[in-house]
Design brief:
This protein has helices at residues 5-8, 29-33, 47-55, 102-108, 115-118, 129-138, and strands spanning 17-22, 38-41, 61-66, 73-82, 87-95, 124-127. By secondary structure, it is an alpha+beta fold. The chain has a 6-stranded mixed sheet. A hairpin with a 4-residue loop joins strand 4 (73-82) and strand 5. The longest helix is centred in the last third of the chain and has 10 residues, at 129-138.
Length: 146
């Protein structure tokens, strides 16, 4: 199956890309998709991760990432950082059409600067546009990307 940039909404997307990492026992995709798919992304204590969250803008897209799991999902920032909750709100967008594991990303992105490879312990990381596009292609795009 050939995936075009048009189908992936890559060129029309303005804004930044992020990776939000959690463990399924802490916050699962089922948790995220409950209540219309909107939830606050909170509980982040690391100052660098909080700094990244404070940089997020409405409409930014994020990979919803579980360590060890091959599936990747996408969420969108629907409320920017707010101090009273020390959070951003994100809405479920969809699941990748094909599973993409960490080993596959490391192979496909060999030699590419990707914060996940450098700082794997951080729960919030920036994702460069080129990396976002390549991972989306690897996963065949995501639900509701048309």
């Amino acid at each position: 199956m050939e995936i075009s940039d048009e189908n992936l909404k890559l060129e029309e997307k303005k804004g930044d890309y992020w990776l939000l990492k959690t463990e399924p026992a802490e916050w699962s995709w089922d948790d995220q998709t409950a209540n219309g798919g909107v939830a606050n992304w909170d509980g982040v204590k690391n100052k660098q991760s909080q700094k990244y969250m404070k940089s997020m803008k409405l409409g930014d897209l994020c990979f919803f990432y579980h360590s060890g799991a091959k599936s990747r999902r996408v969420v969108e920032v629907v409320r920017e950082w707010y101090d009273e909750g020390e959070a951003v709100d994100v809405k479920a967008v969809g699941e990748m059409r094909a599973a993409v594991g960490l080993a596959e990303m490391k192979k496909e992105l060999k030699g590419v600067e990707f914060a996940l490879f450098r700082q794997p312990r951080l729960s919030v990381l920036p994702v460069e546009k080129g990396v976002w596009e390549r991972v989306c292609r690897m996963g065949g795009g995501y639900e509701d990307d048309d």
